[in-house]
Amino acid sequence: MPAIPVELNIVLAYAFGILLIFLIGRVFLMPIKLVLRLIYNGLIGGIMLWVLNFVGAYFDFSIAINPITALVAGFLGMPGIIILVLFKLLI
Q1: Is there a domain that residue 1 lies in?
Q2: Which residues span the domain enclosing 43?
Q3: pLDDT tens digit string along 52-79?
Q4: How much is the average pLDDT of 23-45?
Q5: pLDDT for residue 55
Q6: HEC string of the chain?
Q7: What pTM value is reported for the model?
Q8: Residue 72 domain-assigned (yes or no)
Q9: Number of domains in the chain
């Protein structure tokens, strides 16, 4: 089995180190983006639920606005609102 030249080992070590630094930076950056996205989607979902409750008041229908329902509505959009309405009607 031929030996790998020392120079290639050094180059591979540096490449691995740079890749590791890049991945660690991404790991620390992802939670911040995830938290901001959760907050944004939660606010959008809360606004959609508020509009649904405003219109639903004429039909004596409302869905509680809490973090779970706001995130479901925020992440799924209109299908999420429909799922919440169906869930409320069935239970």
Answers
A1: no
A2: 6-90
A3: 999 999 999 999 888 888 888 888 888 8
A4: 81
A5: 93
A6: CCCCCHHHHHHHHHHHHHHHHHHHHHHHHHHHHHHHHHHHHHHHHHHHHHHHHHHHHHHCCCCCCCHHHHHHHHHHCHHHHHHHHHHHHHC
A7: 0.63
A8: yes
A9: 1
